[in-house]
Amino acid sequence: MNRPAFLDLHRPLHRWLFGLVLLCLGAAASAQQDPPGRVARLNLQQGTVSFAPAGEDSWYDAQPNRPITSGDRLWTDRNARAEVHIGSAALRMDGQTHVEFSELDDDTVRLTANQGNLQLRVRDDLAGQRVEVDTGNLAVVIDAPGEYRVAADPAAGTTWIAVASGRVTLHGENGESQSLGARQQLTVSGRNLVAVGGAPAQSGSFDAWVAERNRIEDQSISARYVSREVVGYQQLDAYGDWQSDPTYGDVWFPRNVDADWAPYRDGQWVNIAPWGLTWVDAAPWGFAPFHYGRWARLGPRWAWVPGRPAARPVYSPALVGFVGGSGANAALQIGDGRSGVGWFPLAPGEAWRPGYRASQRYLDQVNRMAAYRNRQAELRSGFYANQQMAGAVTVLPADRFGRGPFGRRDLVRLPDDRFARVPVAPAPGIPMHGFGGGFGRPAAAAPPTQLMAREQQELRYEQARRTRQMQQAQQVQAMQQQQQQQMEWQRQQGLRQQQQEWPQRGAQDPWQQQRQQQQQQQLQVQQQQALRQQQEMQQRAAQAQALQQQQMQQQQRAAQQQALAQQQMLRQQQEMQQRAVQAQQQAQAQQQAQQNAMRQAQEAQVRALQQQRGFAPAPPQQPPQLQPGQRGGDDRRRLMTSPDQR
Predict the structure, then answer these.
(1) Looking at residue 265, what DSSP letter applies?
(2) Which residues in 69-138 belong to E strands, given as ranges?
(3) Each residue of 536-554: pLDDT tens digit?
(4) Of 75, 77, 417, 593, which cross-links 445 as Cys (Cβ 3.0–4.6 Å)?
(5) Residue 50 has what DSSP assignment?
(6) Residues 493-509 pLDDT 10s
(7) Where does the signal peptide begin and end (predicted)?
(8) Which pLDDT does position 463 carry in this prediction?
(9) What is the pTM of this model?
(10) For the chain, give me the number of helices (H) and strands (E)?
């Protein structure tokens, strides 16, 4: 049984394609190790705005300079408003609005808004990116730059979408889709894009506030010098000035800073996944200059050098170098047997190295903004400009590092020449155990419990939907694997038939023997690949099952916490009722005592009046004892008459 010759000719091509696929998978796996290069920031807040970090149920007061990433949530209380910038896109939230940043990375922005009213402004071309807003009814996919309004009403089960400019596509649960263009709006009920009449009442003050925020953003001076993708550039307008320097080009000088101020000196170090050690500055303008660009000392002042504009700047947790090197014994000694941590801002042209694993592609992208004029960024091992700059190194005791905000009184002053020959490392030389997340104070206002319960219900529904999709994908993979196994079995049967026919033909030539060996080797390789694929599928299924179990455990934990909270509320109500009954009984007892006291007082007054008038209360008299046979009628008549009558 002869096989067509062109099948054998295509085998090298198959091997080449298979190698290309492995190469792409390796590149994808390497890229997956890199953290996202884009974050969001709370650019403005009015009223009470609360924040919940990813993976936690507790709510805290929102901090403007803490980066927002995947899994974080925001809540605006009644009469509150918030503006969040995600690169060049702006998200505006009205009062009583809940938004979760479900997915935020270099290619995807997916927001989940189960309640409230929000406005989204997408300024730049999407260029292959996906921007999506999910509600309890549908998914709104942004197709073009523009301005969009989304209002979700969980009580009515509706979502209102209005397109001021641009274009969106609405997606339902079962594959339904509908497009909306400029100046179009739609109210949807349910999960299948069922249109209903009417639109929710909108606040004119919110529209006016959005228009004012757009005007301020459009007139930003700093947007002339940096890309609008630099998160936090708007605050530079009100807190500093731009100047042109012959060496570094356009630079920005902060206003109203102390004479001994240096970058990365007022704030705190926190632990934020997936970057780890992250700087959160205390200044209202302290986001963009500490996560993009570099710092240089120009005369007596510090200047932020944004570098050459980049189409997509990459966020960095902190662009500093730590003095003392890395390792277990690399801590900086500050005297009295104490160790400390010292750091300084990187200068223009100095490449930054993260304290986590990253690909070379990520390092090249993150260091683009270190370049200025015609000078590229480069790694240095023996010399850093700001390491030897007077007053540039900040030193903090190790026991205060990563333990919340610190002040000037916490800093340690060391001679500047102490740092000249000290090694520089991308991470501090101390163990970072018990680092806080920089959440701040507990929130003054949190979302209502009904919203949280509804969110848990939506989460369970989404998990069930994903489980169904995973099961369907596994079924498809199983069918494909079964088909491959059947084809492989047929191929093996053909090979066996060939092996049975070849001895009957007599002696085989060497070329046929070599071909048979190659086919057997290819068969073994294919079997190994099929076995490897089966093992990978089993691993994926086990991982999916483990993830599902973890999610179920989280749901059970949340249900237990909710039940415990209800029990506590019931116990408190019972205690309050008991206290009320006791208080009522005490009040009745006091009232009875008052009545007794009043009665006794009245009786005392009567006795006093009788004594004043000369009457004394006669003691009770016993009737006279009668002798047997004696009649007492006269005595009774005598007793019934007065002395005058006698």
Answers:
(1) -
(2) 73-76, 81-86, 89-93, 97-104, 108-122, 130-134
(3) 777 777 766 766 676 677 6
(4) 77
(5) E
(6) 777 776 666 555 555 55
(7) 1-31
(8) 60
(9) 0.68
(10) 9, 27
Q: In whole angstroms, what is the distance from residue 529 CA to residue 534 CA? A: 8
Neighbours of 619 (CB within 10 A): 6
Q: Which structure tokens are listed for 438?
A: 């920089």
**C-alpha distance from residue 201 to each of 6, 337, 406, 411 (Å):** 69, 66, 47, 54
Q: Could you give the maximum distance between any two Cα atoms of the chain, in Å?
A: 170
Q: Is 488 left (phi over 0), alpha (psi -120 to 50) or beta?
A: alpha
Count CB atoms within 10 A of the CB of residue 71.
16
Range list of H helices, 34-124: none
Q: Determine contact, residues 325/355, Cβ cutoff 8 Å.
A: no
- The tokens for 336 are 């009295």
Q: Which amino acid, residue 406? A: F
Is residue 442 classed as helix, strand or coil in its secondary structure? Answer: strand
Sign of the CA dihedral running 470, 476, 478, 484: negative
Strands 194-196 and 168-171: unpaired
Phi and psi torsions of 61, nearest 5°? -65, 135
Instruction: State how far the Cα of 51 lies from the Cα of 442, in Å rounded to an integer.
Output: 9
CB-based contacts of 27: which residues, under 8 Å, 6+ apart? none
The span from the CA of 102 to the CA of 114, in Å, is 12
User: Per the structure block, which two tokens stand in for 238?
Assistant: 């009100």
Q: Distance (Å, rounded) from C-alpha 612 to C-alpha 603? A: 14
> Could you tell me the two tokens for 415?
């001679």
Whole-number Å distance between alpha carbons of 380 and 349? 10
Instruction: Give the separation between CA 271 and CA 254, rounded to whole angstroms.
Output: 27
Question: Which tokens hold the place of 26?
Answer: 């390796």
Which single residue is written with the structure tokens 């850093």? 384
- Asked if 131 contacts 109 with a C-beta cutoff of 8 angstroms, the reply is yes
- Find the Cα–Cα–Cα–Cα dihedral 177, 182, 187, 193, rounded to 10°: 0
DSSP state of 259: T
Beta-strand runs (E) in 311-388: 320-323, 332-335, 338-345
* Position 310, amino acid: A
Tokens describing residue 58: 């507790």
- Give the tokens for residue 17: 């394609």
How many angstroms separate the CA atoms of 144 and 126, rounded?
7
Token digits for 610? 């009788």
Is the confidence at residue 575, as pLDDT, over 90? no
Contacts of 206 (CB under 8 A, 6+ apart): 81, 92, 94, 117, 119
Copy the structure tokens of residue 553.
Answer: 């455990």
What are the structural domains, with CATH classification, of the chain? 33-217 (2.60.120.1440), 226-425 (no CATH)
Cβ contact 366:316 at 8 Å: yes
Of residues 30 and 438, more confidently modeled:
438
| Nearest residue to 322 via CA among 432, 231, 408 | 432
Contacts of 321 (CB under 8 A, 6+ apart): 343, 344, 346, 350, 384, 387, 424, 425, 426
